[in-house]
Amino acid sequence: MKINSNDIRVGNVLEHNSKLWVVTKTMHVQPGKGGAFMQVEMKELRGGAKLNERFRAADTVEKVFLDEVSFQFLYQDGDSLHLMNQDTFEQIQLQSDIVGKSVAFLSDGMIVKVCMYENEPISMSLPATVILEVVEAEPVVKGQTATSSYKPAVLSNGVKIMVPPHIEVGTMVVVDTSDSTYVERAKS
To answer: What is the DSSP string of 82-106?
Structure first.
């Protein structure tokens, strides 16, 4: 679908130079001389390359619509992730680099969203947070809990994060999957 360059928004997926790009930043610029334009920062969906592009107000761009499909994570075999479509029970195989560092948070049976373009998987997103157990952490030092300092800890999946001083080994914590950060202590 063709859209006017002034209608480009963050999160839109565009087809530009025969590649798919997701818009990460936009800025409408109206210089003192000349016509207004839209400065757009984009990231390639398949390769991850970044691009800064200027679109004049009269330009049109091709907006792409992706299908978001729920899949259940089955298992990982080396660099391959095996997933099952929740509606059709069809199984697919993706490379683990489609998820990036968040691959460590995948667990058996987890429901993930896969973005498809013309029946080809483009990207995969995990739930925003997961609950994991702390398996290694320094002991609590009395009187240190009042400060806002953090200490290193290792989670049950092997990921190292920073946690507040009151978190001990065996504590279940909520972790943000996008940047591997502590969110809160899990409710029991």
So the answer is: EEEETTT--EEEEEGGGTGGGGGG-
Q: Provide the whole-model pTM.
A: 0.71
Phi, psi dihedral angles at 97 (to 5 degrees): -70, -10
Q: What is the pLDDT of residues 112-156, one digit of tens each?
A: 999 888 888 888 889 999 999 999 998 876 665 555 688 899 999
3-state secondary structure of 165: coil
Strands 80-85 and 91-95: antiparallel
DSSP 104: G
Token output for 72: 């259940």
Which pair of tokens denotes residue 104?
Answer: 């460590």
pLDDT digits (tens, 9 = 90+) for 84-119: 999 999 999 998 887 878 888 999 999 999 988 888
Structure tokens belonging to residue 91: 């199984």
Burial track 164-176 (b if 16+ CB lie within 10 A, e otherwise):
bbebeeebebebe
What CA–CA distance (Å, rounded) separates 91 from 102?
21
67-125 CATH pick, 3.30.830.10, 2.40.50.140, 3.40.50.150, 3.50.50.60: 2.40.50.140
